[in-house]
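re: ur question from earlier - yeah i can do the single chain one, its not a big deal. heres the input i used so u can compare w yours
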Amino acid sequence: QVQLVESGGGLVQAGGSLRLSCGASGGTFSRYAMGWFRQAPGKEREFVAAINRSSGTTYYANSVKGRFTISRDNAKNMVYLQMNSLKPEDTAVYYCAADGNIYFSLSSSADSQRYAYWGQGTPVTVSS
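and the output i got, formated as tokens:
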């Protein structure tokens, strides 16, 4: 059983930056691909970014490509999401999630049902 705890959310002006963190415990962190998802009010949860076990491969939603960067530190059991050039439409609750499946691709990493473990979420509000 893996426990995930996100932090780093908050209120920021458009054009600003935030760095989200997600700490993992209760499992072997390096065995999991990690993803970030977000859910805006009244909308479905959507894929943001994912990173494979070794940090060798990353995937991003088109809406955040070039602005967000996902990274991980397996020694610290942490995954991060650096968010730059934030826009009001980035406002959402951001969740990190862990995927224990071996296969990792853009289509698979964007599938929320592949992720067995989820954090409680951290809210991000971007004001215009």
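The first strand starts at residue 3 and ends at 7. not sure if urs matches, ping me
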